[in-house]
Amino acid sequence: MTETASGNRRPGMLRRFLPLLVLAAGLGAFFALGLDRYVTLDTLRDNRQALSAWVAENWALAAFVYVLAYIVMVAFSLPGALVATLTGGFLFGTVFGGLLTVLGATIGATVIFLAAKTALGDMLREKAGPRLRKLEEGFGRNAFSYMLVLRLVPIFPFFLVNLAPAFLGVSLGTYVLSTFLGIIPGTFVFASLGNGLGAVFDAGRDPDLGLIFEPEILGPILALAALALVPVIYRRFTGTGAAE
Fold this sequence. Notes:
The chain is mainly alpha-helical. It has helices spanning about 1-30, 40-55, 60-75, 80-125, 130-140, 145-150, 160-165, 170-180, 185-195, 195-200, 215-230, 230-240.
């Protein structure tokens, strides 16, 4: 009976960890094949005319390929998301480039969230000590607000913010909505920067990637983050609010 039960557990464990293993294998293959060398602004600079011509002739297909590539990049935690966002703005303009990027990034983040939640989330919560359970409970009461702040202000790496909520019991709906809304401001800033890359390349210069730290841009984003924390502060002082 013990051997049978153990044998039955192995396929279940494999199915649970398979999505995460696939994502990890994809990340390893990306570096092993040297693909990271091509995710650069120099690659975009050298191929911009051919890419622009292809997009002009195949806009719908190009938009689909771009979103799919962004989903893969985020889901596999591949480097180069900033370059990809600039590329989206360059190829599709600020509005459509921003929208396509937000769509791809949200779906990709959701994929890795579900993979981590399925493989490790439930197991970690079952074995968690009282300290982690208390952290999960506190995060859960204000999950949307905390997630929105983490998306608006890149305090931590994007991939880490994709994974951590899976271990803290954040619901799928809360995760998707906060991710979608929270990445909009920063995405459109860089999509706008990408939209002007043609002139930058023609001048032989590199884009100013520190643009987002300019007071007129960072200020409103920080204000939105502060606004997102208002419900947390209100609940803290009034003692209201139940876990989600």
